[in-house]
Amino acid sequence: MNTETTKIKSLLKTLSRIHSSLNIEEVLENSLREIVNLIGSETGSIWEIDEKKQELFFRSIIGTAAPVLKNKRLKIGEGIAGMVAATGKSLIINDVKKSKQWKEEFDRESDFKTKNLLNFPLTSGEKVIGVIQLLNKKEGFTNQDLRLLSILGAPISIALENAKLYTRIKKIFKETSLSLATAIEKRDPYTGGHTKRVLTYSSIIGKSLGLADAELEQLELSAILHDIGKIGIPDAILRKKELLNEEERKIIEKHPLIGAEIVMEIEGMEKILGGIKYHHERCNGSGYPEGLSCNKIPLFAKIIAVADVFDALTTERPYKKAMSFEEALIYLWEKKGTEFWPPAIKALKEELNSQVLQYI
Ligand SMILES: [Fe+2]
Protein backbone atom coordinates (compact mmCIF):
# COMPACT_ATOMS: atom_id res chain seq x y z
CA MET A 1 0.00 0.00 0.00
CA ASN A 2 1.51 3.39 -0.98
CA THR A 3 1.70 6.41 1.36
CA GLU A 4 -1.36 8.14 -0.07
CA THR A 5 -3.44 5.00 0.36
CA THR A 6 -2.22 4.51 3.92
CA LYS A 7 -2.99 8.13 4.78
CA ILE A 8 -6.55 7.85 3.48
CA LYS A 9 -6.96 4.62 5.38
CA SER A 10 -5.96 6.11 8.72
CA LEU A 11 -8.11 9.18 8.14
CA LEU A 12 -11.17 7.03 7.44
CA LYS A 13 -10.31 4.88 10.43
CA THR A 14 -10.39 7.86 12.78
CA LEU A 15 -13.65 9.15 11.33
CA SER A 16 -15.27 5.76 11.52
CA ARG A 17 -14.26 5.26 15.14
CA ILE A 18 -16.07 8.44 16.13
CA HIS A 19 -19.01 7.45 13.97
CA SER A 20 -19.52 3.95 15.33
CA SER A 21 -18.78 4.55 19.00
CA LEU A 22 -22.06 6.32 19.61
CA ASN A 23 -25.31 4.53 19.87
CA ILE A 24 -27.34 7.33 21.30
CA GLU A 25 -30.53 6.52 19.42
CA GLU A 26 -30.68 3.25 21.31
CA VAL A 27 -29.94 4.95 24.63
CA LEU A 28 -32.78 7.37 24.05
CA GLU A 29 -35.28 4.70 23.09
CA ASN A 30 -34.34 2.50 26.05
CA SER A 31 -34.67 5.45 28.44
CA LEU A 32 -38.11 6.19 27.02
CA ARG A 33 -39.20 2.57 27.48
CA GLU A 34 -37.99 2.61 31.07
CA ILE A 35 -39.88 5.81 31.86
CA VAL A 36 -43.05 4.45 30.27
CA ASN A 37 -42.75 1.34 32.46
CA LEU A 38 -41.88 3.27 35.57
CA ILE A 39 -44.77 5.72 35.30
CA GLY A 40 -47.12 3.05 33.98
CA SER A 41 -48.34 4.77 30.82
CA GLU A 42 -49.34 2.90 27.68
CA THR A 43 -46.77 4.53 25.46
CA GLY A 44 -44.64 7.65 24.94
CA SER A 45 -42.40 9.71 22.71
CA ILE A 46 -39.53 12.16 22.79
CA TRP A 47 -39.93 15.21 20.57
CA GLU A 48 -36.89 17.21 19.55
CA ILE A 49 -36.90 20.85 18.50
CA ASP A 50 -35.60 21.61 15.03
CA GLU A 51 -34.36 25.13 15.66
CA LYS A 52 -33.91 26.05 12.02
CA LYS A 53 -37.47 25.22 11.10
CA GLN A 54 -38.94 26.07 14.52
CA GLU A 55 -40.66 22.69 14.52
CA LEU A 56 -40.79 19.57 16.66
CA PHE A 57 -40.12 16.11 15.30
CA PHE A 58 -40.09 12.66 16.89
CA ARG A 59 -36.58 11.73 17.98
CA SER A 60 -37.93 8.58 19.59
CA ILE A 61 -41.39 7.07 19.52
CA ILE A 62 -42.61 3.70 20.73
CA GLY A 63 -45.92 1.86 20.58
CA THR A 64 -48.30 0.74 17.84
CA ALA A 65 -48.74 4.20 16.29
CA ALA A 66 -44.99 4.72 15.83
CA PRO A 67 -44.69 3.53 12.19
CA VAL A 68 -47.46 5.89 11.02
CA LEU A 69 -46.48 8.90 13.11
CA LYS A 70 -42.68 8.80 13.14
CA ASN A 71 -42.26 11.42 10.38
CA LYS A 72 -44.88 13.84 11.72
CA ARG A 73 -43.87 17.36 12.68
CA LEU A 74 -45.46 20.12 14.74
CA LYS A 75 -44.80 23.85 14.65
CA ILE A 76 -43.63 25.27 17.96
CA GLY A 77 -46.84 26.40 19.68
CA GLU A 78 -48.95 23.92 17.71
CA GLY A 79 -50.62 21.00 19.47
CA ILE A 80 -49.94 20.09 23.08
CA ALA A 81 -46.26 19.16 22.66
CA GLY A 82 -45.74 22.33 20.61
CA MET A 83 -47.30 24.42 23.35
CA VAL A 84 -45.06 22.86 26.00
CA ALA A 85 -42.06 23.55 23.75
CA ALA A 86 -43.14 27.18 23.48
CA THR A 87 -43.84 27.79 27.15
CA GLY A 88 -41.29 25.45 28.73
CA LYS A 89 -43.93 24.41 31.25
CA SER A 90 -44.94 20.83 31.97
CA LEU A 91 -48.55 19.92 31.43
CA ILE A 92 -50.92 17.15 32.48
CA ILE A 93 -54.12 16.71 30.52
CA ASN A 94 -56.31 13.97 31.93
CA ASP A 95 -59.10 14.39 29.38
CA VAL A 96 -57.82 15.24 25.91
CA LYS A 97 -61.30 15.88 24.55
CA LYS A 98 -61.49 18.99 26.69
CA SER A 99 -58.23 20.39 25.32
CA LYS A 100 -58.40 22.87 22.44
CA GLN A 101 -54.77 22.23 21.62
CA TRP A 102 -55.24 18.50 21.08
CA LYS A 103 -54.59 17.41 17.50
CA GLU A 104 -57.08 14.64 16.96
CA GLU A 105 -55.81 13.90 13.46
CA PHE A 106 -52.78 12.07 14.89
CA ASP A 107 -55.16 9.54 16.49
CA ARG A 108 -57.27 9.25 13.36
CA GLU A 109 -54.27 8.57 11.15
CA SER A 110 -52.69 6.02 13.45
CA ASP A 111 -55.82 4.30 14.70
CA PHE A 112 -54.83 5.07 18.29
CA LYS A 113 -57.01 6.41 21.06
CA THR A 114 -55.39 9.01 23.28
CA LYS A 115 -57.17 9.47 26.59
CA ASN A 116 -54.73 11.41 28.74
CA LEU A 117 -51.24 12.91 28.44
CA LEU A 118 -48.30 14.07 30.43
CA ASN A 119 -45.85 16.51 28.81
CA PHE A 120 -42.49 17.46 30.19
CA PRO A 121 -40.03 19.93 28.63
CA LEU A 122 -36.45 18.78 28.14
CA THR A 123 -34.00 21.60 28.63
CA SER A 124 -30.39 22.54 28.19
CA GLY A 125 -29.71 25.38 30.59
CA GLU A 126 -32.61 27.78 30.08
CA LYS A 127 -33.37 26.54 26.60
CA VAL A 128 -36.11 24.00 25.76
CA ILE A 129 -34.60 21.39 23.41
CA GLY A 130 -37.44 18.87 23.37
CA VAL A 131 -40.53 17.47 25.01
CA ILE A 132 -41.16 14.09 26.55
CA GLN A 133 -44.74 13.00 26.13
CA LEU A 134 -46.38 10.06 27.89
CA LEU A 135 -49.79 8.79 26.82
CA ASN A 136 -52.62 6.92 28.50
CA LYS A 137 -52.21 6.11 32.14
CA LYS A 138 -55.17 4.10 33.41
CA GLU A 139 -55.80 6.06 36.57
CA GLY A 140 -54.68 9.37 35.04
CA PHE A 141 -51.35 11.25 35.45
CA THR A 142 -50.51 12.92 38.77
CA ASN A 143 -48.10 15.53 40.13
CA GLN A 144 -46.16 12.63 41.60
CA ASP A 145 -45.43 11.51 37.99
CA LEU A 146 -44.22 15.03 37.18
CA ARG A 147 -41.88 14.99 40.18
CA LEU A 148 -40.44 11.70 38.97
CA LEU A 149 -39.91 13.17 35.52
CA SER A 150 -38.22 16.23 36.93
CA ILE A 151 -35.56 13.86 38.30
CA LEU A 152 -35.32 11.74 35.15
CA GLY A 153 -35.59 14.73 32.83
CA ALA A 154 -31.96 15.80 33.32
CA PRO A 155 -30.27 12.61 32.06
CA ILE A 156 -32.80 12.37 29.21
CA SER A 157 -32.01 15.95 28.22
CA ILE A 158 -28.33 15.06 28.14
CA ALA A 159 -29.08 11.97 26.03
CA LEU A 160 -31.09 14.17 23.67
CA GLU A 161 -28.26 16.67 23.41
CA ASN A 162 -25.89 13.82 22.63
CA ALA A 163 -28.30 12.52 20.02
CA LYS A 164 -28.27 15.94 18.36
CA LEU A 165 -24.50 15.89 18.41
CA TYR A 166 -24.52 12.35 17.01
CA THR A 167 -26.64 13.51 14.06
CA ARG A 168 -24.15 16.30 13.43
CA ILE A 169 -21.21 13.89 13.60
CA LYS A 170 -22.90 11.56 11.12
CA LYS A 171 -23.47 14.49 8.79
CA ILE A 172 -19.88 15.65 9.16
CA PHE A 173 -18.61 12.10 8.56
CA LYS A 174 -20.61 11.89 5.34
CA GLU A 175 -19.48 15.34 4.20
CA THR A 176 -15.83 14.63 5.02
CA SER A 177 -15.95 11.35 3.13
CA LEU A 178 -17.53 13.18 0.20
CA SER A 179 -14.83 15.86 0.21
CA LEU A 180 -12.19 13.18 0.39
CA ALA A 181 -13.69 11.27 -2.52
CA THR A 182 -14.19 14.49 -4.50
CA ALA A 183 -10.57 15.48 -3.91
CA ILE A 184 -9.44 12.13 -5.28
CA GLU A 185 -11.85 12.43 -8.20
CA LYS A 186 -10.37 15.84 -9.12
CA ARG A 187 -7.20 14.09 -10.30
CA ASP A 188 -9.26 12.93 -13.26
CA PRO A 189 -10.44 16.16 -14.93
CA TYR A 190 -13.15 14.49 -16.96
CA THR A 191 -15.27 13.03 -14.22
CA GLY A 192 -16.17 16.21 -12.29
CA GLY A 193 -19.14 15.70 -9.99
CA HIS A 194 -19.28 11.94 -10.67
CA THR A 195 -19.12 10.89 -7.00
CA LYS A 196 -21.90 13.24 -5.96
CA ARG A 197 -24.14 12.09 -8.78
CA VAL A 198 -23.48 8.40 -8.10
CA LEU A 199 -24.39 9.13 -4.49
CA THR A 200 -27.65 10.80 -5.57
CA TYR A 201 -28.65 8.01 -8.00
CA SER A 202 -27.72 5.25 -5.52
CA SER A 203 -29.70 6.97 -2.81
CA ILE A 204 -32.74 7.33 -5.10
CA ILE A 205 -32.56 3.63 -6.01
CA GLY A 206 -32.06 2.56 -2.37
CA LYS A 207 -35.04 4.62 -1.18
CA SER A 208 -37.22 3.30 -3.97
CA LEU A 209 -36.25 -0.29 -3.05
CA GLY A 210 -37.40 0.45 0.51
CA LEU A 211 -34.06 0.18 2.34
CA ALA A 212 -34.25 1.02 6.04
CA ASP A 213 -32.67 4.32 7.16
CA ALA A 214 -29.53 2.72 8.61
CA GLU A 215 -29.01 0.61 5.48
CA LEU A 216 -29.55 3.64 3.28
CA GLU A 217 -26.87 5.54 5.20
CA GLN A 218 -24.44 2.69 4.59
CA LEU A 219 -25.34 2.53 0.91
CA GLU A 220 -24.68 6.27 0.61
CA LEU A 221 -21.30 5.96 2.25
CA SER A 222 -20.45 3.05 -0.01
CA ALA A 223 -21.47 5.12 -3.07
CA ILE A 224 -19.37 8.06 -1.86
CA LEU A 225 -16.30 5.86 -1.46
CA HIS A 226 -16.87 3.52 -4.42
CA ASP A 227 -13.92 4.84 -6.44
CA ILE A 228 -11.65 5.71 -3.50
CA GLY A 229 -9.19 3.07 -4.75
CA LYS A 230 -8.33 5.35 -7.68
CA ILE A 231 -5.94 7.03 -5.26
CA GLY A 232 -3.60 4.11 -6.02
CA ILE A 233 -3.78 4.49 -9.83
CA PRO A 234 -0.97 6.50 -11.54
CA ASP A 235 -1.88 9.87 -13.08
CA ALA A 236 -0.61 8.83 -16.49
CA ILE A 237 -3.38 6.25 -16.68
CA LEU A 238 -6.09 8.10 -14.79
CA ARG A 239 -5.69 11.30 -16.81
CA LYS A 240 -5.16 9.69 -20.21
CA LYS A 241 -7.47 11.17 -22.86
CA GLU A 242 -7.20 8.31 -25.34
CA LEU A 243 -8.67 4.86 -24.79
CA LEU A 244 -6.55 2.68 -22.51
CA ASN A 245 -4.49 -0.22 -23.81
CA GLU A 246 -4.79 -3.73 -22.38
CA GLU A 247 -2.06 -3.29 -19.78
CA GLU A 248 -3.35 0.09 -18.60
CA ARG A 249 -6.87 -1.27 -18.39
CA LYS A 250 -5.65 -4.05 -16.10
CA ILE A 251 -4.08 -1.47 -13.80
CA ILE A 252 -7.17 0.74 -13.58
CA GLU A 253 -9.28 -2.34 -12.94
CA LYS A 254 -7.40 -2.76 -9.69
CA HIS A 255 -9.15 0.26 -8.14
CA PRO A 256 -12.05 -1.71 -6.55
CA LEU A 257 -9.51 -3.96 -4.79
CA ILE A 258 -7.37 -1.03 -3.67
CA GLY A 259 -10.54 0.67 -2.36
CA ALA A 260 -11.54 -2.49 -0.53
CA GLU A 261 -8.07 -2.74 0.99
CA ILE A 262 -8.38 0.82 2.30
CA VAL A 263 -11.66 0.25 4.11
CA MET A 264 -11.30 -3.48 4.88
CA GLU A 265 -9.84 -3.33 8.35
CA ILE A 266 -11.71 -0.26 9.48
CA GLU A 267 -14.17 -1.07 12.20
CA GLY A 268 -17.74 -0.25 11.26
CA MET A 269 -16.94 -0.19 7.52
CA GLU A 270 -17.52 -3.91 6.85
CA LYS A 271 -20.99 -3.29 5.51
CA ILE A 272 -19.94 -0.77 2.92
CA LEU A 273 -17.06 -2.89 1.65
CA GLY A 274 -19.16 -4.90 -0.83
CA GLY A 275 -20.27 -1.80 -2.74
CA ILE A 276 -16.67 -0.66 -3.17
CA LYS A 277 -15.11 -4.00 -4.04
CA TYR A 278 -17.78 -5.27 -6.42
CA HIS A 279 -19.25 -2.21 -8.17
CA HIS A 280 -17.69 -3.34 -11.48
CA GLU A 281 -19.07 -6.88 -11.30
CA ARG A 282 -21.72 -7.77 -13.89
CA CYS A 283 -24.65 -10.16 -13.55
CA ASN A 284 -23.38 -12.59 -16.24
CA GLY A 285 -19.98 -12.87 -14.57
CA SER A 286 -18.19 -10.66 -17.13
CA GLY A 287 -17.17 -8.02 -14.57
CA TYR A 288 -14.18 -7.63 -12.27
CA PRO A 289 -12.38 -8.25 -9.91
CA GLU A 290 -13.88 -11.71 -9.33
CA GLY A 291 -16.35 -12.30 -12.17
CA LEU A 292 -19.21 -12.91 -9.73
CA SER A 293 -22.71 -13.75 -10.96
CA CYS A 294 -25.78 -11.71 -9.99
CA ASN A 295 -26.80 -13.75 -6.94
CA LYS A 296 -23.27 -13.45 -5.49
CA ILE A 297 -22.90 -9.71 -6.03
CA PRO A 298 -23.73 -7.76 -2.83
CA LEU A 299 -26.84 -5.55 -2.94
CA PHE A 300 -24.96 -2.25 -2.60
CA ALA A 301 -22.64 -3.17 -5.50
CA LYS A 302 -25.61 -3.98 -7.76
CA ILE A 303 -27.17 -0.60 -6.97
CA ILE A 304 -23.92 1.38 -7.32
CA ALA A 305 -23.14 -0.37 -10.64
CA VAL A 306 -26.37 0.96 -12.16
CA ALA A 307 -25.84 4.45 -10.68
CA ASP A 308 -22.19 4.48 -11.83
CA VAL A 309 -22.88 3.44 -15.44
CA PHE A 310 -25.97 5.66 -15.67
CA ASP A 311 -23.82 8.66 -14.76
CA ALA A 312 -21.00 7.63 -17.12
CA LEU A 313 -23.52 7.36 -19.97
CA THR A 314 -25.24 10.67 -19.28
CA THR A 315 -22.10 12.80 -18.99
CA GLU A 316 -19.75 13.91 -21.71
CA ARG A 317 -16.24 12.48 -21.91
CA PRO A 318 -13.39 13.43 -24.30
CA TYR A 319 -14.13 10.37 -26.40
CA LYS A 320 -17.95 10.41 -26.34
CA LYS A 321 -21.06 12.55 -26.16
CA ALA A 322 -23.56 12.45 -23.31
CA MET A 323 -26.68 10.31 -23.72
CA SER A 324 -30.07 11.60 -22.60
CA PHE A 325 -31.54 10.06 -19.43
CA GLU A 326 -34.01 8.15 -21.57
CA GLU A 327 -31.35 6.77 -23.93
CA ALA A 328 -29.23 5.72 -20.95
CA LEU A 329 -32.14 3.91 -19.32
CA ILE A 330 -32.89 2.08 -22.56
CA TYR A 331 -29.20 1.10 -22.79
CA LEU A 332 -29.23 -0.24 -19.22
CA TRP A 333 -32.57 -1.99 -19.69
CA GLU A 334 -31.22 -3.82 -22.78
CA LYS A 335 -28.56 -5.27 -20.51
CA LYS A 336 -30.88 -6.16 -17.65
CA GLY A 337 -30.06 -9.49 -16.12
CA THR A 338 -27.02 -9.95 -18.35
CA GLU A 339 -25.04 -7.06 -16.92
CA PHE A 340 -27.21 -5.09 -14.52
CA TRP A 341 -29.61 -6.02 -11.76
CA PRO A 342 -33.13 -5.34 -13.10
CA PRO A 343 -34.76 -4.06 -9.85
CA ALA A 344 -32.13 -1.30 -9.60
CA ILE A 345 -32.74 -0.11 -13.20
CA LYS A 346 -36.50 -0.31 -12.66
CA ALA A 347 -36.25 1.73 -9.46
CA LEU A 348 -34.18 4.43 -11.19
CA LYS A 349 -36.57 4.51 -14.15
CA GLU A 350 -39.62 4.87 -11.91
CA GLU A 351 -38.06 7.69 -9.94
CA LEU A 352 -37.01 9.45 -13.16
CA ASN A 353 -40.58 9.20 -14.36
CA SER A 354 -41.78 10.69 -11.12
CA GLN A 355 -39.39 13.55 -11.98
CA VAL A 356 -37.44 13.41 -8.74
CA LEU A 357 -34.31 14.03 -10.77
CA GLN A 358 -35.40 17.40 -12.06
CA TYR A 359 -34.25 18.81 -8.74
CA ILE A 360 -30.72 17.46 -8.97
FE1 LIG B 1 -15.19 2.39 -10.30
Question: What is the residue-mean pLDDT, rounded to a whole number?
Answer: 87
Output the number of helix runs: 15
Q: What kind of sheet is the major sheet? A: 6 strands, antiparallel
Instruction: State the helicity in percent bands.
Output: 40-55%
Properties at a glance:
single chain; 360 residues; alpha+beta; Beta-Lactamase; Hypothetical protein af1432; 6 strands; 53% helix
Architecture overview:
The protein is α+β, with helices and mostly antiparallel strands and 360 residues long. The protein folds into two domains: 24-166, Beta-Lactamase (2-Layer Sandwich), CATH 3.30.450.40; 186-359, Hypothetical protein af1432. The chain has 15 helices and six strands. The protein has a six-stranded antiparallel β-sheet with strand order 3-2-1-6-5-4, with helices on both faces. α12 (270-277) crosses α13 (299-314) and α14 runs antiparallel to α15. The longest helix is centred in the middle third of the chain and has 43 residues, at 143-185. The two termini are 36 Å apart. Residues 356-360 have low confidence and may be disordered. Bound molecules: fe (ii) ion. Fe (ii) ion binds next to loops.
